[in-house]
Amino acid sequence: MAVPQTTELAGSGTSQTQPGSVRAWLVVAMVVALMVINFGDKAVLGLAAGPIMRELGLSAAEYGAVASSFYLLFSVSAVLVGFLSNRVKTTWILGTLAVLWSLTSVPLLLAASASTLYLSRIALGAAEGPTAPMVVHAVQKWFPEDRRSVPTALTQMGGALGLVIAAPTLVYLITNHGWRAAFVALALAGVVWVVLWAFIGREGPLTTYDAGQHGVVQAGGEPDVPYRKLFFNGTFLGGLLAGVGAYWALAMNTAWLPMYLEKALGYEPHQIGVVVVIPNVLNALAILVVPWLSGRWMRRGATGRAARGVVAGLAVAFAGGCMLLLPHASGAAALVLMTLAFGLPSVAFPLGYLTAAQIAPVRKRGAVIASKTALVTLAGVFAPAVTGALVQAAGSGGAGFQTAFGLCAGLMIVGGLLAALVVNPERDARRLGLLPAGADRP
After folding, report:
1. Residue 328 class from Cβ within 10 Å (0-12 exposed, 13-18 middle, 19+ buried)?
2. Global model pTM greater than 0.90
3. Residue 6 pairs with which residues in a beta bridge?
4. Angle of helix 179-200 versus helix 49-56 axis, rounded to 10
5. Which of 54, 279, 297, 314 has the fewest Cβ atoms within 10 angstroms?
């Protein structure tokens, strides 16, 4: 029997399978499954909005506030766990987070009320806040820089797949067995994932910045770059601007798109579970294909600025233009614009994680990615509540959504164009001492 190759961890004296091995791809598959459950948890409230609002007597503004409450501790927990990941294995962090998800639904299932709904969503947000940056950090320990575009994209595609897979399934459960059945199914899925992760989850061997360059673990330390410089540069700030616009659209998608389809476009409840899948199919494809193409482009000599920064910024800005037109369209045109407006902007997430990794030492990468995620996801605190207030104030669902979409479109257009101008990971990596002078890319 052939003996598997091993790579020694710098300074640890332990060994693990090689980067890019079967184990690495098993870890990727598991974190994709985790992200599927993650986004199912986010989406279930929007899919069950109608029956929950009727049972608990919630107005549009009150429902919007509940949806926003999910993000109250989302960013705080992302930052705290991000810095914790500098010292604690991501394998343990992800397992703990998944356990906590499954527990957050228990109070709501035992005693459904507006108060327990608030508490359940706040607790769920706190448990899910660190997930996206931690799965990226975990996967990037298994793949060198020139091979991590697809694995990183897959972690984010799991979110889109969560909406594609979960929407029809959860709508079926809600329609036929009540909204509580959907919450129970998601909690059980989290428990099953934790059991499998205990056997499959492992920490990757790439623990230094130069390991990402050469595909092997290098001896020696990394530059001790202060967080002040890691957070205040064009790449970090530009990715942040594009991410805020993209996440505002994502938060509207999960919280309000089903209601928009029903109130403004006239879809029946049984049709909504199918229609909401369409933009998320494009979302999943774009999240996978665009980073894959950008990775191929970079291996042929393109810079991260062009292949990641400009591409992400223009994709978000274009989606914003589509959203600006959406309230003025109907029929097939509305469906196309809706698909582009909600399906394209999420490419900013994997591309943003990739550029962040280009400017961060590995020992601080978890904190950098988590801090960026925390700031981006603050949009989720405001988007559902602002949308709900606008819809209720307008009196007409269509008029309120027109204003809400215009606001989101402005954020995406401005943020996307600024990102395309200022994101430049090679320049910033040189300034931070991570790349030698004259180097084009890691």
Report:
1. exposed
2. no
3. 17
4. 120
5. 54
Place of tokens 């590995």: 362
**Cα dihedral sign, 141-142-146-152:** negative
- What letter would DSSP give residue 145? G
**Is 394 buried (19+), middle (13-18) or exposed (0-12) by CB count in 10 A?**
middle
Long-range pairs for 262-269: beta carbons < 8 A, 24 or more residues apart? 262/50, 263/397, 263/398, 263/401, 264/327, 264/397, 264/398, 264/401, 265/330, 265/334, 269/50, 269/171, 269/175
Q: Does residue 6 sit in helix, strand or coil?
A: strand
Cα–Cα distance for residue pair 212/268, rounded to 1 Å: 50
Q: Give the DSSP H/E element, type plus range, for residue 15.
A: strand 15-17
Residue of 172, 129, 140, 122 whose CA lies nearest to 38: 129
What is the chain's alpha carbon radius of gyration, rounded to the nearest angstrom? 21
Q: What single string gives the DSSP state of each residue in 333-359?
A: HHHHHHHHHHHSGGGHHHHHHHHHHHT
For residue 145 the two structure tokens come to 């820089």
| DSSP tag of 267 | -
Pairing of strands 6-8, 15-17: antiparallel
| Segment holding 37, helix H or strand E | helix 22-47
Q: How far is it, in rounded angstroms, from Cα 165 to Cα 91?
A: 25
Burial (CB count <10 Å: 0-12, 13-18, 19+), residue 43:
buried
| Closest residue by Cα to residue 274 from 189, 186, 169 | 169
For residues 308 and 424, give the distance between their C-alpha atoms in angstroms, rounded to a whole number: 9
For residues 102 and 44, the answer to whether their CB atoms sit within 8 Å is no
Tens-digit pLDDT string for the chain (442 aa): 333 333 333 333 333 455 557 888 999 999 988 988 887 877 788 778 788 888 888 887 788 788 878 878 888 888 888 888 888 888 899 999 989 888 888 877 777 788 888 888 888 888 888 888 888 888 888 888 778 888 888 887 776 676 677 777 888 888 888 888 888 888 898 899 999 999 998 888 876 665 444 333 344 566 788 999 999 999 999 999 999 999 999 888 877 887 788 777 777 766 777 787 888 888 888 888 998 899 889 888 889 999 999 999 999 999 999 999 998 888 889 889 999 999 899 899 989 988 998 898 888 888 898 889 889 988 887 888 888 888 888 776 567 888 899 999 999 999 999 999 999 999 999 898 887 665 554 4
Residue 147 CA, distance from chain mean position: 20
- Per DSSP, 307 falls in state I
